[in-house]
């Protein structure tokens, strides 16, 4: 059974600081997703990572994937308040097709002014 | 074009009643997914439809849960004889072909009293 673990579960950081959220998964996968969820809202797609060594950046967020280590990271650079949200990674455990995603438990990020 | 839409946005019901939740996917998306998100938790996969293939029902938690999809359009998730543990946000997502990012609807918040 595919398991996806994120850490930390809760993260409170000051504006302007850098931090990294980690996502570990237990079985081989050919794609990994990062989503953002604001309170009371649905999920917004941030990144999809398709291969070992993939790196994608959007604004202050950068995601990377190491399929050998079964690890993805979401790095936040010079955090600003509007990045406060819950971030989920999700893994497609079925090679060759996008079927059900297995989600991590989420990292609730709070940026303090 | 329009994103994924879901109705109702909120549903309060009494224990033992049946409920129907509706999802309208993005036009042209052949794949449709239902997930459940309990308060403060990640998403649990429920069911997946892809074109005319038999749905993947492996995530449905009990036989009280069922879902249908008409062609490549609307889907309904039905929960019979609701229980308090069914209280959650039910999220629908759709994607192209089955190998693309899943786009999520706003969810239906179900409360079983």
Q: Which spans of chain B have pLDDT < 50 for at least 5 consecutive residues?
A: none
Biggest sheet statistics of chain B: 6 strands, mixed
Overall 3D form of chain B:
globular
**Approximately how much beta-strand content do the residues of chain A carry?**
over 45%
Q: Could you list the spans of chain A in which at least 5 consecutive residues all have pLDDT below 50?
A: none
User: Biggest sheet of chain A, in brief?
Assistant: 6 strands, mixed
Overall spatial form of chain A? globular
Report on this model:
The complex is a heterodimer of chains A (113) and B (113). In chain A, a hairpin with an 8-residue loop joins strand 9 and strand 10. Chain A has no helices and 11 strands. Chain A is 0% helix and 55% strand. In chain A, strands 2, 4, 5, 9, 10 and 11 form a 6-stranded mixed β-sheet that branches. A 5-stranded antiparallel β-sheet of chain A has the order 1-3-8-7-6, with no helix packed on it. By secondary structure, chain A is mainly beta. With 113 residues, chain B is mainly β. In chain B, strand 4 and strand 5 form a beta hairpin. In chain B, strands 2, 4, 5, 8, 9 and 10 form a 6-stranded mixed β-sheet that branches. A 4-stranded antiparallel β-sheet of chain B has the order 1-3-7-6, with no helix packed on it. Chain B starts with a strand and ends with a strand. Chain B is built from no helices and 10 strands. Chain B is globular. The mean pLDDT of chain B is 92. The chains are: A mainly beta (113), B mainly beta (113). The interface between A and B is medium-sized, with 20 and 26 residues.
């Amino acid at each position: 059974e595919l398991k996806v673990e994120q850490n930390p579960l809760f993260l409170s950081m000051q504006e302007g600081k850098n931090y990294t959220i980690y996502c570990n998964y237990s079985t081989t996968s050919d794609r990994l997703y990062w989503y953002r969820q604001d309170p009371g809202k649905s999920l917004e797609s941030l990144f999809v990572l398709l291969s070992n060594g993939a790196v994608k950046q959007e604004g202050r967020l950068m995601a990377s994937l190491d399929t050998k280590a079964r690890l993805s990271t979401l790095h936040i650079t010079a955090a600003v308040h509007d990045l406060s949200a819950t971030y989920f990674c999700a893994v497609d455990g079925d090679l060759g097709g996008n079927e059900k995603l297995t989600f991590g438990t989420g990292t609730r990020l709070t940026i303090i002014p | 074009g329009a994103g994924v839409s879901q109705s109702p946005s909120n549903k309060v019901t009494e224990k033992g009643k049946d409920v129907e939740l509706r999802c309208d996917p993005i036009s042209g998306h052949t794949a449709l997914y239902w997930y459940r998100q309990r308060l403060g938790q990640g998403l649990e996969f429920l069911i997946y439809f892809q074109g005319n293939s038999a749905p993947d029902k492996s995530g449905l938690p009990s036989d009280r849960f069922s879902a249908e999809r008409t062609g490549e359009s609307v889907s309904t998730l039905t929960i019979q004889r609701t229980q308090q543990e069914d209280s959650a946000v039910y999220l629908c997502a759709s994607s192209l072909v089955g190998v693309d990012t899943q786009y999520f609807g706003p969810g239906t918040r179900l409360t079983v009293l």
